[in-house]
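Handout, section B. The chain below has 311 residues.
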Amino acid sequence: MTTSVTYPANIGGDNITIDDSDSTTTGLGNGGHRTRFMIAMAQFVKVADWVRATAQTVLGYRDAAATSASQAQIYAAAAQASAGAPALAGNANKILAVNSGATGVAWVQSLPSLTVDLMTGKTTTLTHTAPLVRYVESDQSGAVGVFQTQVDGGTYALLRNTAAARDFSTYVAEYQVTSAGRQLFGGATDDGATKHQFGGDTKVTGVLTASTVTAANVTGTSDRRLKHAIEPLSDALDTVKRLRGVRFSWLGDDSGRRDVGVIAQELQDVLPELVFEGTDGNLSVAYANLTAVLIEAIKEQDVRLAALEGR
């Protein structure tokens, strides 16, 4: 089997082939080495020289890259110094702001007055004297529905613009926290006393636990279309006779005020549907739903009285 070696041009050779046959043109066999050996060695040297030159070029690229990186660091430091930006150390949680003379930048901890373009068509306005953030949908036809959060004089507010312009000349206060810590929802007017105050309709899903709730009307969902498996109450009068009304004082209330009601654990034995357990493990009572039992109890009592009176 003939063995051959080709010296490709892409690694420095002349693209010639040397084999071990007895060919006088390419072979090394039968004395052919006398005429072909030096040619083969010359090709080997050419390949070696190509490898050396290529390696030297690569090293040059490496050195150039290192020099460029070093120069980039120098240029960055020079740019920082030229802009007047101080070192990062000791300036955590601060921002860079251009000074009033527009000659450089400096670290600041309080927000200056500025408008920041966060995204295309979205603008946030920050004002230092009365900090506010306005959420503007700039591609809408009007400005109604634009929101703004602001802090002014110790009061925090979430406002919804109702004007055609974005000047907030008219707005609805969706949520406010006064300087006294009272929280106003839905445009409620501060009564100067109550911690949480609601304006408009308020819907609570789940168990509402509170010592006192004051409202003009408190309603519970009772639509016929939302109910099924409806059945009349029976033995309501006997059920009421098993209930016990008590007068009591609340633990932790040292005002001396007395209250009336039922004991949830006792009611649970008679009407478990009206007793709910909160996340804290305490039981609460749906007092309003007792009305249905009282209605049927009065009707049953009237039937008994009518029988006694011969009506």
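Note. Residues 302 and 308 are 10 Å apart (CA to CA). Compare this with the example in section A.
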